[in-house]
Amino acid sequence: MQSNAALEYDYTVAKLYTYTAIVFGFVGMLIGTLIAAQLAFPDLNYLLGEYGTFSRLRPLHTNVVIYGFTVSGIFATFYYSSQRVLKVSMAESKLAMTLGKLQFGLYLIAAASLVVTELMGITQSKEYAQMEWPLDLLIVVIWVIWGIVMFALIGIRREKALYISMWYYIACFLGVAMLYLFNNMAVPTYFVAGMGSIMHSVSMYSGTNDALVQWWWGHNAVAFVFTVPIVGMIYYYLPKESGQAVYSYKLSLLSFWGLMFVYLWAGSHHLLWSTVPDWMQTMGSIFSVVLILPSWGSAINMLLTMKGEWNQLTENPLIKFMVLASTFYMLSTLEGPIQAIKSVNAIAHFTDWIPGHVHDGVLGWVAFMIMAALMHMAPRMFKRELYSKKLVEAQFWIQTTAVVLYFTSMWIAGITQGMMWRAVDEYGNLMYSFIDTVTVLHPYYAIRALSGVLFLTGFVMFAYNMVMTMVASKEITEEPASATPMA
Amino acid sequence: MFHWLEKRPFFFAVGVFLVIAFAGLVEILPNFAEASRPVKGLKPYSVLELAGKEVYKKDNCIACHSQLIRPFKAETDRYGQYSLSGEYAYDRPFLWGSKRTGPDLHRVGNYRTVEWHENHMWDPPSVVPGSIMPAYKHQFKNVADLETAYAEAVTVKKVFNTPYGDDIQPGKAAYEAELKNKILPEARKIAAQMKNQDVKDMVAAGKVPEIVALIAYLNRLK
Question: Is residue A257 less than 8 Å (CB to CB) from chain B?
Answer without folding.
Answer: yes
